[in-house]
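Course exercise 7: structure representation. Students receive a sequence record and must write out the corresponding structure in token form. The form below is the worked example handed out in class, using Chromosome partitioning protein ParB (300 residues). Read each field label carefully; the graders check that inputs and outputs are placed in the correct fields and that the protein name is recorded exactly as given.

STUDENT ID: A-19
EXERCISE PROTEIN: Chromosome partitioning protein ParB
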Amino acid sequence: MQKKGANISLKGYDDIFSTDQSRAEAQQERVQEIPLSDLHPFEGHPFRVVDDEEMLKTAESVREFGVLTPAIVRPDPDGGYEIISGHRRHRASELAGKETMPAIVRDMDDDAAIILMVDSNLQRETLLPSERAFAYRMKLDAIKHQGQTCGQVGHKSRDALSDSDSGRQIQRYIRLTELIPEILDMVDNGQIKFNPAVELSYLAREEQQDFLSAMDFAQAAPSLSQAQRIKKLAQEGECTLDAMCEIMNEVKKGELDRVTFKTDSLRKYFPKSYTSKQMEDKIIQLLEQWQKKREKSMER
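STUDENT ANSWER:
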């Protein structure tokens, strides 16, 4: 015979005195102030956090107004929290002398965290080709882990991977992750253009090392046509250092009537964070100012 009261379960103090509304609110995400020392970067994230001019401006804004958009973090089993979105805000808070920053704590598995981490950073206007390339690759892998096949990802890549780049362009960015670091750095600083870099990514790593020697020998960056011919040599098993040197040493159309400067010779005049495009824009701006001064002096 069942004892009287055997089915009665004792509830805790919070369960007895809380309401349905308060319990629902407790389940909702909320902004918390978390010590900076408890926050650490997302493992393997491809986005660079550098103390450049833009970062210093962000730090000054944080110093004056605080962090206006909370970071998104997830609990780390080893302690503290892993930053999913907010790496730059975290660094800016450190530079601003803050001890905490606002963040939303969210439980997420690795794949969901990677997708959110990539999406939140792809919105930035200034992304290096290498950052975009590794971000797309990380997100593609995460999407595959979630159950989509390679074919599904390929057909839906515009929606699944990016709102701005086409599926073909995304795959071309991902090709850049096959480049050796030395060549990828040249793509980031503008020494090698994007399209030739994609062609060079099909070379084996040893062939890419030889290509650097050929590029140094010719003291020139590859055109798209040159990179395509070098890729063809690699596919035919004839990609030797001598063959690449011969291709790279060709005089490109239009070079005879062109003035060029080596990036290294100009780099000392600009902040380290400047890209080749920023240096070019600044040089043009200074030349325009110089021309105006000459025109004014000639009018006198």
